[in-house]
Design brief:
- About 40% of the residues lie in helices and about 15% in strands.
- Helix 4 crosses helix 5 and helix 7 runs antiparallel to helix 8.
- The N terminus is likely disordered.
C-alpha cells in the first residue's frame, strides 16, 4: 500500500491466539465475485463460522489482504476463531476485483460508489446467504468512510455494530501535511488514469532500508513489525488508485469536508442520523490520519459511540496507520476491543 509521497500523505493491524481448526477454516474459505447495480464487479471472501456475520472493508489503495496477511497477522481468522462469520470485501478495482466482465476495472467511480453500490451489494448477498437481519461492519481508513456513506445513503436497518480503524470524518483541522496531500491528489487525479501502487509496494520491499527517508514508514510504526512482515505487507496489501477516486479525495481535502462527489451531502453532518453503535480507533502516531480526525468520526454519530487511542499508554508501541490490523501485538491489544464492541451490540 505504498503511495508516492504526496499521495501517501493524502489519507489519508504478543501472543497469537491461533485458530483452533486452521486447516479446516482455510479449506472452507470461499471467494465470490458479484456484479453491483451499476455494473461493476466486487469480490467477497468468506471465512465461515456459526456466529453473526461481519463485513471487513479495506482502505484506499488496499485490498482484503489487510485483514488476512498471514496466520499471525490476521483479523479475519481471529474473529472467525471467536465465533464471527467473516466476510472480506475487495472493492471494485482492488484485489480480486481488479477485473470485471469487461476487462480490467480502471476508472470511472468515486468514493460514493463504494458505499452506494459495492457495500450495498455485499450486505445484500451476506444477508441472503446467512439469513441474518443485520451485518456488523469493520472498515479501515477509507473503508470506514465507505461504511458511513452506506449508512447515510441506505440507512442502518441492515447494519449491526460498526468499528472504524484510522478513518477520518473531518478535514478542516489544519496540519502540515494537508497542503501536500491536496497537491498530490489534484496532480494524480488530473493527469493519471490510475496509480500502480502494487508496483510501488514491490519496489519498496525490494529496496528495503535504502528507500529515501523510509517514506513507507509513514504508513506504519517499524517497532510493531519484523522485516519479513513488512516485506510481505508492502507486496500484498496494495491495489491501484483510480483517477476519479483521487479527484474525489482531492475535492474533500480542498473543501475541508467529508462530502459527496456532487457536494450535496455533508457525510459528517449526516452521521448524526446514524443510530448504531460505532467504535473508532485512532493513534497519535498515525501520520496518515491524525487521531483527532478519527475521533471526529465517533463523535459525529447519533448512536452509542466510543473512541480508543492506540498510543500514549495501553499498548506496547504506538500504532501507525496500517498497524491497527497488522501490528504484532494487535491480536492482544486491539482485536479484543473490536470483538467486545461487536458482542455488546
Amino acid at each position: 500500500m505504498l503511495l508516492p509521497p504526496a499521495l501517501l500523505l493524502a489519507l489519508a493491524p504478543a501472543c497469537w491466539d491461533p485458530l483452533p481448526n486452521d486447516t479446516e477454516a482455510d479449506f472452507l474459505a470461499t471467494t465470490t465475485r458479484l456484479e453491483t447495480a451499476d455494473g461493476a464487479t466486487i469480490a467477497l471472501h468468506h471465512h465461515p463460522a456459526a456466529g453473526p456475520p461481519v463485513l471487513l472493508v479495506h482502505g484506499i489503495s488496499s485490498n482484503h489482504r489487510f485483514f488476512d496477511l498471514d496466520p499471525k497477522h490476521n483479523l479475519a481468522d481471529w474473529l472467525c476463531a471467536h465465533g464471527h462469520d467473516v466476510w472480506m470485501l475487495d472493492l471494485r478495482g482492488h484485489g480480486d476485483a481488479v477485473y470485471g466482465d469487461h476487462g480490467r476495472q480502471f476508472d470511472g467511480w468515486t468514493v460514493d460508489d463504494y458505499g452506494e453500490y459495492d457495500v450495498d451489494t455485499a450486505i445484500k448477498h451476506i444477508r441472503s446467504v446467512t439469513g441474518a437481519a443485520r451485518v456488523d461492519y469493520i472498515g479501515h481508513s477509507m473503508g470506514g468512510m465507505v461504511g458511513a456513506i452506506y449508512a447515510v445513503r441506505h440507512g442502518t436497518a441492515s447494519l449491526g455494530a460498526m468499528v472504524v480503524l484510522g478513518s477520518p470524518a473531518a478535514f478542516s483541522m489544519k496540519d502540515p501535511l494537508v497542503g501536500l496531500a491536496q497537491a498530490g491528489m489534484a496532480m494524480g487525479g488530473a493527469s493519471l488514469l490510475w496509480v500502480d501502487t502494487p508496483a510501488f509496494g514491490s519496489i519498496a520491499a525490494d529496496l528495503g532500508g535504502v528507500v529515501p527517508g523510509h517514506l513507507q514508514e509513514r504508513l506504519y510504526n517499524p517497532e510493531n513489525y519484523d522485516a519479513a512482515t513488512v516485506d510481505e505487507m508492502l507486496r500484498a496489501v496494495a491495489s491501484p488508485l483510480a483517477r476519479k477516486e483521487m479527484q474525489h479525495f482531492g475535492r474533500m481535502l480542498k473543501d475541508e469536508r467529508f462530502e459527496s462527489w456532487d457536494r450535496k451531502i455533508d457525510y459528517r453532518a449526516a452521521l448524526s442520523g446514524v443510530h448504531i453503535p460505532v467504535l473508532a480507533i485512532g493513534s497519535s502516531h498515525d501520520q496518515v490520519v491524525p487521531a483527532a480526525r478519527v475521533q471526529a468520526f465517533s463523535e459525529a454519530v447519533g448512536g452509542k459511540h466510543a473512541f480508543f487511542l492506540a498510543s500514549d499508554g495501553g499498548v506496547a508501541h504506538a500504532y501507525g496507520h496500517l498497524d491497527y490490523a497488522l501490528a504484532d501485538n494487535a491480536p492482544t491489544e486491539v482485536f479484543p476491543r473490536i470483538e467486545e464492541w461487536l458482542a455488546e451490540r
